[in-house]
C-alpha cells in the first residue's frame, strides 16, 4: 500500500516561487583606501557598470575632503531571478593626511540603518519595510603593505560587531604566489591578535559529499581573498577570450583560480552565502544592536524580547529611541498622527457614504 | 634617501640599483617587525666598487613614514635631518682649521616612492614633495609598477606630472638649473616623457631565454627588472648613477646648500654661525651714489 501522500513536500517549491516573485535585495558596502581596485572589482563581480559617470578628484581636492557615503542601486536579473543590489561606497576613506576618526561616518551610517529598521519594525505600517541594512562589507587591504595598517585595524574594530566583514586583498596581481600566502597569513594573525571578528562561513553539513567539503575547506583557507578585477575581455595565451589584464609579460586571468581568488569570492558572495549573510545580519548583528538599544532605556518590560508582543500601538510610538534626536522623534510621531487622522477621516467619509447610500436605498424602497 | 610608505619596495629597489645588499630589508614578513610609531631615520653607509672606482654610498631609509592614521607633519623629522646635514657641513666650512676634504653627509638625492593607485597622487605625497623639493633633489618614482598595464602607466604618469606642475613642485632635474641648451633638451625629454620612472625591483634571479635575470615570477609570466618593455628600472639606474650622479651632487652643493647657508647667515645677521668666529665683521659695502641727472 502506498504511503499516504499529503503534499507538503511541495512546500520548498512554493517558497521558491514566492521568493523569486518577491525578488531579493542585498546591500553591499565596499571600503578601503582609494586605488585598490574596488570599483573595478564590483563591476567584475556583478558584470555591470555601476561606476560609469565616476570622476576621481585630484590630490589637491582631496586634501580637505571628508568621507562621504554614496549609495548606488542597480537591478540585475539572471535566469528569471531578480536582485536589487544596493552598493554603499565610501570615497575619501583613508585619503587625507590626517585620517583620525574617518571611519566614524561609516559606523554612524551602519547604525542609522539599524535604527531605521528598528523604528519601522516597531511602527504601525509594517507591510512594506524597506531593508536598507548593510548585509556585508568588503574591506580592501592594500597588497603593497605589510599586512593590516593602523587605519585598517581602527576601521575593522569599529565595525566588526555591526556588519559582516569579508577582508579582501585588492590588486593581487602585484604579488607573487609566495608573497600572497605570506601576506594572507600575516593578516589572519593580525585579525586574531586584534580580536576582530570577520564573517565566519558556516560549516558545511556532514552529509555533503567529499568534493563539496574539500571545496568549502579550500575556500575558507583562502581568506582573505586575493582578487583581481577586470571588465575587459582579452585573449589569453591561447585563443580563448577571457576577462583579464594584459601586461607585456603575460595576461592575468580574472577567473583563473591559479591567478587569483576572484572565483572563490564570487561563488561565496553570490552563489552560496548571500542568504546567510542576510540572516546573520538580521539574527545576530541587528538583534545585538536592538538589545543594546532597548537595554539602554532601562525600562522594565522593554528589556526582554517576549514583552515585545505586549507593546500596544500606543507604547510603540512612545519608545524614545535613544539615538534619535528629540526633534526627529517628535516629527515622526506627528507624521504618524497625521496618517492616523487621515485614515480616520477616510473611514468617516466611507461611513457617511454608506449611510447616504443606505438612506437613498430606503428612499427608493419607500417610493 | 628613500621615502614612501612601508611595503612599496624601497629597500629592494635600492638593493637592485646598486646590485648589492646595501639596504637592510625589514624582512617583509617578519612577525616581530612593528610599524614604528614615529618616522625613524636609518642611515647605513657602504663602500662599493666597480671598475676600480670606489664609491661611498649612504642609504637613508625612513620607516614609518605615512603609515600612521594621522600623518600630519610626518615630513618634519626628515626635513630636520636634511637640514642637520647642511648645518654640519656649514660648521666645518666655517672652521679656521678646515679639513682638506670636508666629510659630506648631505643628502644628494631623495627617491620618493609613489603608490601605484592608478588614480593620482595622494594628498600626503603632495604635501611631502611641496615641503621637501625646496631643500633636496627629489626624484619621484612609481613603485611596484607591475600592477599597471601600459595604458594605465602612461595615463597615471601624465596625471602625476600634471599635478606636480599645477602644485608648483619642482622635482629633479629642476628646470631652473639647466645650464645650457644641451642640458635643457636632454632634461626636458626626461622630465616630460620618462619621469616619474615606473619601476619594479627584485633581488631574485630567474632563468629567461637561457639568461639569468633579476625578476619576479608570477603564474602568468616573469617580469624582468632590466627589460625596458617591462619597466623603467634601467632608465632610473642610468639616470641616477651613470649620467646624473655628479650633477646631483653639484646641485645639492651649489644650490640647496647655498640656499641653506644664505638663510643661516641672514638669520645670524651676516655672521657665520658657531665656533671659529674671529670676530671680524666685514663692513657693509657702501652704496655707490647714484649719478644725479645733470
From TrEMBL, chain A:
<comment type="similarity">
    <text>Belongs to the TRAFAC class TrmE-Era-EngA-EngB-Septin-like GTPase superfamily. Septin GTPase family.</text>
</comment>
<keyword id="KW-0342">GTP-binding</keyword>
<feature type="region of interest" description="Disordered">
    <location>
        <begin position="348"/>
        <end position="367"/>
    </location>
</feature>
<dbReference type="GO" id="GO:0072687">
    <property type="term" value="C:meiotic spindle"/>
</dbReference>
<dbReference type="GO" id="GO:0030496">
    <property type="term" value="C:midbody"/>
</dbReference>
<dbReference type="GO" id="GO:0051301">
    <property type="term" value="P:cell division"/>
</dbReference>
<dbReference type="GO" id="GO:0005525">
    <property type="term" value="F:GTP binding"/>
</dbReference>
<feature type="site" description="Important for dimerization">
    <location>
        <position position="144"/>
    </location>
</feature>
<dbReference type="GO" id="GO:0007056">
    <property type="term" value="P:spindle assembly involved in female meiosis"/>
</dbReference>
<comment type="function">
    <text>Filament-forming cytoskeletal GTPase. May play a role in cytokinesis.</text>
</comment>
<dbReference type="InterPro" id="IPR030379">
    <property type="entry name" value="G_SEPTIN_dom"/>
</dbReference>
<keyword id="KW-0547">Nucleotide-binding</keyword>
<dbReference type="GO" id="GO:0005813">
    <property type="term" value="C:centrosome"/>
</dbReference>
<dbReference type="InterPro" id="IPR016491">
    <property type="entry name" value="Septin"/>
</dbReference>
<keyword id="KW-0963">Cytoplasm</keyword>
<feature type="domain" description="Septin-type G">
    <location>
        <begin position="22"/>
        <end position="296"/>
    </location>
</feature>
<keyword id="KW-0597">Phosphoprotein</keyword>
<dbReference type="GO" id="GO:0042802">
    <property type="term" value="F:identical protein binding"/>
</dbReference>
<keyword id="KW-0132">Cell division</keyword>
<keyword id="KW-0131">Cell cycle</keyword>
<dbReference type="InterPro" id="IPR027417">
    <property type="entry name" value="P-loop_NTPase"/>
</dbReference>
<keyword id="KW-0206">Cytoskeleton</keyword>
TrEMBL record, chain B:
<dbReference type="InterPro" id="IPR008114">
    <property type="entry name" value="Septin3"/>
</dbReference>
<comment type="function">
    <text>Filament-forming cytoskeletal GTPase. May play a role in cytokinesis.</text>
</comment>
<feature type="domain" description="Septin-type G">
    <location>
        <begin position="1"/>
        <end position="267"/>
    </location>
</feature>
<keyword id="KW-0206">Cytoskeleton</keyword>
<protein>
    <recommendedName>
        <fullName>Neuronal-specific septin-3</fullName>
    </recommendedName>
</protein>
<dbReference type="GO" id="GO:0005525">
    <property type="term" value="F:GTP binding"/>
</dbReference>
<dbReference type="GO" id="GO:0005856">
    <property type="term" value="C:cytoskeleton"/>
</dbReference>
<keyword id="KW-0547">Nucleotide-binding</keyword>
<dbReference type="InterPro" id="IPR030379">
    <property type="entry name" value="G_SEPTIN_dom"/>
</dbReference>
<dbReference type="Pfam" id="PF00735">
    <property type="entry name" value="Septin"/>
</dbReference>
<dbReference type="InterPro" id="IPR016491">
    <property type="entry name" value="Septin"/>
</dbReference>
<keyword id="KW-0963">Cytoplasm</keyword>
<dbReference type="InterPro" id="IPR027417">
    <property type="entry name" value="P-loop_NTPase"/>
</dbReference>
<keyword id="KW-0342">GTP-binding</keyword>
<comment type="subunit">
    <text>Septins polymerize into heterooligomeric protein complexes that form filaments, and can associate with cellular membranes, actin filaments and microtubules. GTPase activity is required for filament formation.</text>
</comment>
